[in-house]
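Quick question: what would this complex look like in 3D?
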Amino acid sequence: MTGVAEPTIRVQAEAFDVAAEQARLVAGRTDVGAIVTFTGLCRSEDNTLAALELEHYPGMAEAEIARTAREACRRWPLTGLTAIHRFGRIAPGDLIVLVATASSHRAAAFEAAEFLMDFLKTRAPFWKKEHRVDGSSGDWVEAKDVDDRAAARWG
Amino acid sequence: MGRVVSVRYFAWVRERIGKAEETVEVPDEVTTARDLVFWLKGRGEEYDYALEKPEVIRVAFDQMHVEPEAGLEGVREIALFPPMTGG
């Protein structure tokens, strides 16, 4: 492998296929020894949630994820990195976000995936609004301090 | 003369102000991200409500996160939004 891996970043309304994305990371190469995939899903919150509405800042969302992804590729010896974040209305059980990191060895893949998710949660311009089962428009999901602390530990 | 910039709002900041974007002429004495938040806050009831807790409002200049001290000079697109909840 030469140079730093070029990440694949997508921000889209459509669903994505985790297996297809994973296959893309190994297509045509034999130096990948480990792939870590993280998938974030919409929860039903004890069956009170009908859907999440994800708002995003077009342009900045892609740019901010790309900045974090490039930083991950600099910090760890990755052979590939894919980050996909959906927007729009997402039902419980559906996938919201995918981070997949590929490397020759697992430590780099695990660490880079966690790094990416920690930063994505606190820096990527997305906001979740709840739609309730009873038809009421719920609240905007509040940011958690624990997410800020998780991002801060990477220095 | 002030500078003319495009301002975009997202999530509950957008809902409270009642618009997604606008073009504003910012007075010369408004020179930082913090100044801008406070200046916008004084523009009317809906702005005051949206920006009632200025310390939680995040600001981006030309699609990059900035600190409150960041200078407005040369900035074309400004965005104000709540802490992010993606992922």
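Answer marked as accepted. Chain A is about 35% helix and 35% strand.
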